[in-house]
Design brief:
659 residues, two-stranded antiparallel ribbon, 2 strands, 61% helix, Ankyrin_rpt-contain_sf, Ankyrin_rpt, phospholipase activity, Ankyrin repeat domain-containing protein
Length: 659
Amino acid sequence: MAGADNPLGQLNPGLLRQVAGALHPNEVASSFKFASKEVYTCLRDYKTFKLAREPSQWFCSALTSNIQLCLAEQPWPGHDFVAHWGRPEPWRALNQRQRHRLLCLAASSRHPPSLDAALEHCGTVVKSDALVSAAAVGDLEACRQLLVEEGCHWDGYTVWTAAAMGGHVPVCQWLMNVTDMCEDDADLGRYARYAEHAACLRGQREVVAWVQQWRGGLPAVAGYGNNSPRAEAHKLATAAAEGGQVELLGELLAAAAVTDAMQRREVLAGVAYGCPLEALQRHYGQWGTEAAAEAQHRRALLLRAVASPTGDWAAKCDWLLLQWVSSPGWAPASHGTARLDEELWRQAGGQPDYLQRLERLAACGIDVPAEAVEAAAAAGNVSAAAWCLGLPPLLRAAGWGQAGQQEPASQVLAKAATAAGQVQVLRMLRERGVALSFAHLLNAAPERRDCTSTSTERAFECLPALRYAAMEGGLNEAAAEAGADWSAVFRRAAQHGADLELLRHLHEQRGAAISFMDLVAGGSEEQLEWALEALGPAGVSSQASGAALVESALLSGNWAAAEWLRSRGLAVDPDNQQQLQQLLCSLAAEQGDPLHIPALWWLLQRYDLQWTLECREALDACWEIGSDGGWPVPVGHRLWLQKMMQMGDEALAEAAEGA
C-alpha cells in the first residue's frame, strides 16, 4: 500500500518507533512492520521473536515442591514459527534438551499448527513437561493429543498443580477422568488437595469451588492426611496468604475458623510473606501474642517478612521488630523448616534489593543461613554474593545431610554459582581469590546415563559454568596444573545437552576424548556429524556396537539421534534378529521401570522383528514392573503396550500355524 493511502506511512520514523514500542515485539516483527513500505523501512530491525515467557516466581509451603513452567510468550508468532520450525533442517542443530524445550513452548502456544510442527520434527520422547505446559494455559485439546496420541509421560503432581494455578476447571475435570487411566489405585484426593492449594495460592476461586463440589459428592471421610480428599483449612488459608490473596484469605478464615495455635502460626507466617503490612497488622493483632510467643516463631515470621515479594517488606520487618522490643534473641532453624527455608530463599534471591534484605537480617542479629548465601549466588546477584564473602563459616540448618557442618561462605557461593551457571559470580569470586575447582564442575554436572529415569526433562543450568571453565580459563591454577579430566566434562556435557562450540573446544583445545555413546544420548544431529567426521566410522565402532549406540539413544528418548544412526548405517543391523530381540528385551524388562514403552514403540515401528516367546514375555514383564512398583503408566503408553502385545501374540500364533 502506498504511503499516501496508508496513514501509518505518513508518520515520521520517530512516531513509528513510538507506536512500535507500545506494541509487543512479536506483533511488530510478525505483522505491524509490514503495514507499508515506509513502516517496514523504519522497523526492519524487528527480526527476533520472543518465544518463551519469563518464568514466574512463587512460594507455597503447602505444596511438596516448586515447579518451573516452560510457557510460550503471547502473542505467539504462529505463522512464522511454522514457517521456520515446520522443516527438519533447523532442528538438526538443537540437542535433545533444546528440542524438548521448544516442544513445550509449542504445547503452550495455543496454536495447533505449531504443536503439530514441533511433534513432527522434534525427534524426542515427549516428557511430562509438555503436558504440564499445555495444562498451564488451559489447552485441553493439546493435553489430549499429547497424553493419548503422542505417548507423553505423566507426572500427576505437576500437571494438576499447573492446571489449578492457571484456573482451568475443564482441564482439572479432564485430569480427574484420566488420572485413573495413568495410575493404578490413583489417589485422586491427594491431587485434589494439590489443586486446591495451588488455586488458593493464585486466587483461582472457580477451581476451589470445583474441588469442593467434587469432594461434596464423596462419602464422608473423617480426618485429614494422605488418604483423605479433605484439605486442612489452615493449609488453604496459608496458601492464599502466601499468594497475597487477602480477600480470599478472609473468606477462607470466615468459612472455617483456625483455632489451633500451631496452625495459626503457619497462617500468620504466610501473611508475613505474601500479604501487605495492613493485613499482617490485622492478623497479628488477633493471634500475635500466641503465634509469636517463642523465639523460633518470631524468627520464622521475620524470615518470611525479609524474603517477602511485597514492596513493603522492610516496613513489615520494622513493624514486627517493634512488637518484640523486649523479646530475647533468636532461635536457630528447626528440623521441620529446612526444606521450606531453601525454597523461601531461592525465591527471594531474585529480588533486586536482595543485598538490603541480607543486611537487614544481619542487623537484627540473625545469622545469615547457608541457604540465603546459596540463593545470592544462584540468582547471579554479584553485590549480594560479594557481601556474603564477609560472613563467618556457615552452619547448615538442622534436618539436612550436612546438618551441623560448617563451611566457608566462599565455598558455598562457588558451589551454588557453578550449579546455577552464574559466571558473573564466578568471575567476582576469582577476583577475590576464590577460583573454581574441578570438583565444583563435576558435582554440578553429574553423570546422566539414562535421561528418562525421570518423566520430566531436567535443566542443565551449570552449562555456562562449564563454558567458563573450559573456554575462559576459569579453573584455579592448581586444577589446571594437576591435569583436569576434561573427558569427564565432555561426557557430562554431551549427556545433558551442550552446544557444538563447547564440545569442539573440549576436544580440540582441552584434549577431551569424544564419547560417541554420550553424544547419541543428549546431542544433536549436527554434533553427531562432527563426531563421525572426527572419529571416522572405525573410530565410532571401536567405542560401541551399533546395538549399544541405538540403545543409548532410545534409553534417552533421543529419537533424532536414533534415526541418524539408522541413516548412517551405525545402528543395530536390521538383519541381525538376535540383536533386535536382545534390544527389545533390554528396553522392556531390564531397566527396572516401565518408562521405555515409547522406545519400544519406536523400535517396532522401524524394524521388522521376528517375535520370540522371550520377546513377548519381556512385554509382560514391563507391565508387571509398572504394576508391582507403583509406577504410573500413562494412557498412551498403555495403548502402545497393548498394541505391541497384540503384535507379538499374532506373530507367534502365525508362526505356530506355519510350523
